[in-house]
Amino acid sequence: MPEDVLPNGSAPTVPAPLGLSGRVLEMQTKLHRWAVAEPGRRFDDLFNFVHDPATLLVAFERVASNQGARTAGVDGLTATDVASAPGFLTALRADLKSGSFRPLPVRERKIPKPGGAGKVRSLGIPSVADRTVQAALKLVLEPIFEADFLPVSYGFRPKRRAQDAIAEIQRFGIKGYHWVLDADIEAAFDNVSHRAVMDAVRVRVKDKRVLALVKAFLKAGILTEDGQRRDTHTGTPQGGILSPLIFNIALSVLDEHLHRDWKPGGRMDGQYPRKKRRRHGLPNWRIVRYADDFAALVHGTADDARALQHEVASVLEPLGLKLSPAKTRIVHMEDGFDFLGFRIQRKRKRGSAKWYVYSFIAERPVRSVKDKIRALTRRTSQANPADVLIRLNQIVHGWTNYFRHAVAKHTFRMLGIFLWRRVIMWFKTLHRWSWKDIRKRLLGPHGSWLPITVDGVELINPARTPAITRYRYRGDTISTPWAIA
Fold this sequence. Notes:
The chain is of the alpha+beta class. The chain is built from 17 helices and 15 strands. The protein starts with a strand and ends in a 27-residue tail after the last strand.
């Protein structure tokens, strides 16, 4: 049975001279240290940390600096509106302490799925007050559960990136894990069981007030786009600050199940036991998960991968989740598969007999970024050219930075040509230029094209993205933000 203990008996009674952010970081470091030292420890009296003025202030600063700060919840208030209202955090803290705080329903907003052929995804937008409390809960809960999360999970975790997941797939693909269960969980965030979520949170949290807050956010309900109120009996809304952490807590059951044999004393603990299993015709496997997207790599046969698929389905069933029959498949790495926007494929290196696992850019993200460029450079657009170039640069910079560790040189060059042509054709219409005018303005003295520049803003050329190199595999060496001395 887990040990029930109080977490903050040694907490200082006066604020540390570190500033509010420093106080919160110090609190998080202590929670993480205690969670690592005692894996069975259940934490009580966490609620005091949640409504601490420093925690709430840091939480609100994160909400206000987020890209969605300008988006209002059902109450119609944005972060700017709330920031200008005197006493917002004081009143919110008083509501939390008195137990009168109740989250509002999230506002539903449907957005197109990337490459979804007209399909949409529902986002749930909480009010600013709810976002602040969720951020405060995350500040308190994340250091505790990060002590338990396994290194095979990369999505929505501090200091971890999608590129780490790709690097792990490449690493094990080179080592013989050639069969892949390319899995897709059907409507994962919408269908995860509330009971399973709360049971997973209770493993580490004893404080009933914190548990009640988490449950209240799960049950807050949805205000649909047509103004109808809908109760939420399952799922955690995409768009909530707390939702990714809650989902990772629930899905850690899958990580534990498939990774348990890699732990000390397990059947796959060490190279020799794994080689011995292969000599006896037994498979080895490894899961790589990024939120609800995961790939199970199998060193064995296609039948071994199919058996693993049935095992995964049985683990997901108590969580209220199931694999999508249409999107879940078993593939060989030589055929390739898409994961997190990358196309991963095992191929023979040109001019040699050696085989490597390469990551390319998949077709869907290329189509998506081209659609964004098209939307900004319509020939009928009367937008300010400098503003458009700034936005194009932001899109292209973020996109190329994400994919720059893939085999991307050719794709970047083709995207650069596409981008240049779209902007030039827009400028032709906007300024009523002819090709003679374009050559006069953009052709250099030696016959080479000059960069497109408007009011000091130069259009980025994706082909000039620096340092296209393979991402370094970090694996178990990824640290947390709460360094333990």
